[in-house]
Every structure is written in structure tokens, then in C-alpha cells.
Amino acid sequence: MSTRASSNTKTDTNTEPSTRTRAIARQVIILVSSILAIVAAFIGSGVFFGTPIQEAAGGFLNSDSTLIAPGTGAFRIWSVIYTGMLAYAIWQALPGQRFDERQQRIGWWVAASLILNAVWIGVVQLNLLFLSLPVIALLLVVLCRSFVILRQTRPKNRVEVVVADGAIGLYLGWVIIATAANATAIFYAVGFEGFGIAPEVWSSFVLAVAAAVGIALAFWGGGRIAPALSLSWGVVWVAVARFTDEPYSPPTGVAAVIAVVLIVVATVVARVRHDRAVRR
Predict the structure, then answer these.
(1) Measured between alpha carbons, how far is 156 from 139 in angstroms, rounded to an integer?
(2) Closest to 268 in 3D by CA, of 228, 241, 208, 235
(3) Would you report the helix, strand and coil content of the chain in percent, each value rounded to 5?
(4) Given a cut of 70, is residue 21 above it in pLDDT?
(5) Which pLDDT tens digit goes with each residue over 215-261?
(6) How many domains does the chain have?
(7) Do the Cβ atoms of 221 and 151 come closer than 8 Å?
(8) More confident of the two residues 237 and 275
(9) Residue 123 pLDDT more than 80?
(10) pLDDT class for 58, splitting at 50, 70, 90?
(11) 11 membership: H or E segment, kind and range
(12) Within a domain: residue 6?
């Protein structure tokens, strides 16, 4: 153990100044980005100032705007996501993570996701609904890239599993359903009438795509729980909204329930298969 400690100390001592500077800059930028995202979230909540997201951009992002809009309660998950991302930002800022290869690979992607999150809130606050879609789509791409890196590398311990893999996984799962809701809101805003196809057919199709993405993530990710939890949470609230709120749509609610069941079953099966493979 002493030999390993000496080796690590020597590595840090021999690190080139430019490399050390970049590593520290990465840690600081991630920490600042997480704070920026939280500040933007307060603005988006309208608690102190700013317009609540549900009321901004013409109200098209409200829970009763489209068939794919999750119920208001769904957005409570942001508190968990922001807490998790802040925990990750603090954890990765520790000296022990400064030259960690996994954090070096994922760090800038995480910072980009937090900045894009704040940009999305700012765009919506400025009532630029149409610009919000490319922003959230780019956020989804960045989070997918982060997930790929996490999947390709191994965490050092359980703490990293929770604050890195867990927090980013929750973030990704929620943004999947949020992107679908955002896109649907824009179609509604421009007066898209579905080419004569019933709205419930379109909503069921969108939910089927979300379920397919969740199933793919489950099997490719070895049954990782965090993305499935947040994605299922969002889809469940779509069901709740369609059964209890306007626009009332039991067919969409049923499609949402089926989507959740498929995501959960796929995640459990993928997890069992992954654990068996590891034991072998």
C-alpha cells in the first residue's frame, strides 16, 4: 500500500505544469457550471424572479399543452438531478480526481451538459421556443456521449458509482423524455395536424420511440438503473397527466404505462444477464 501511495505522489509531483493547469481548470469549470445550472434553475422556477418554465414560451411547455407533456409533479426530479450533479462536481474537484483518466475523459462533457442546461432555460425565458429544441437535442447528444464513456470505463468505488454514474444516468434518462416533450410542443405550436392521423396515434408512437431508447440503453448499458428510473419517472407522469388532466387521453395514458413496463422489464433482464456474465 505504501508503494502505491509513493507512486501516486511521484506521479503528481512529476506532472507537467501545463497538464496540472488543465486538470485544475477542468475541475473548476465543472464546479462553476454546476452552480450556473442551479442558478438558472431558480430563474426557471420563478421562485424569486424570472418566469416559471410552464408559463414561459407561450405556455407550450406546460403540463397540459400536449399529449406527451409530463404532469407537473414530474419536474420534482430536477431537485434530485441538480443535487446529484452538484455532488459530482464537488467530488471530482477533490485532488484525488485531478488526474483520474475517467474524469479527464468525461469532465468536459459534463461541463458542456450543465452549460447547455442553463442555456436551454435562458432560451425559454426569452420565449425562443423554436431555439429550445436544438439546444436540448445537443444536450441529449452530450449526455449520450457521457454515458458511452461511463460504459467504456470502470468506476473506482461505490462513491463514484453513485455520484458519477448515478447522477449522470438520472440526468440522461430525464432528458430523453424532456426532448420528446419539447419536440412535441414545437409541433403543436406551429399547428401541426398530424397529416390526418389521430393525435393518440402520434403520442403512442413518440412513447414507443422513448421506450425503444430506454430498452436499448438497458441492454447496452448492462441494466444500469439510473437512466431507467428517471426515464420511467417521466413517462409515468405522462400517464398521470393524461388520465387526470387536460388534454385527457386514456389511450395515451395506456401507451405510457406499457412503455414504462417495457423499460423496467428490459432493465431487469439486462441487469440479470450482466450480473451473470460478470460472475462467470
Answers:
(1) 26
(2) 228
(3) 80, 0, 20
(4) yes
(5) 999 999 999 999 999 999 999 999 999 999 999 999 999 999 999 99
(6) 1
(7) yes
(8) 237
(9) yes
(10) confident
(11) helix 2-13
(12) no
Domain with 118 in it: 20-274
Nearest in space to 92 (alpha carbons), one of 78, 108, 80, 77 = 108
Domain assignment present for residue 4? The answer is: no
Listed in sequence order, the residues at least 6 apart from 114 whose beta carbon sits closer than 8 Å to its beta carbon are 30, 33, 34, 36, 37, 85
Distances (CA, A) of 236 to 29, 215, 232, 254: 35, 16, 6, 10
Residue listed under C-alpha cell 461505490: 158
Residue 164 CB coordination number (10 Å):
25
| Nine cell digits for residue 103 | 474524469
Report if residue 45 sits inside a domain: yes
Identity (one letter) of the amino acid at 210?
Answer: A
Residues contacting 94, CB < 8 A, separation 6+: none
**15 within a domain of the structure (yes/no):** no
Q: Which grid coordinates are listed for 239?
A: 400517464
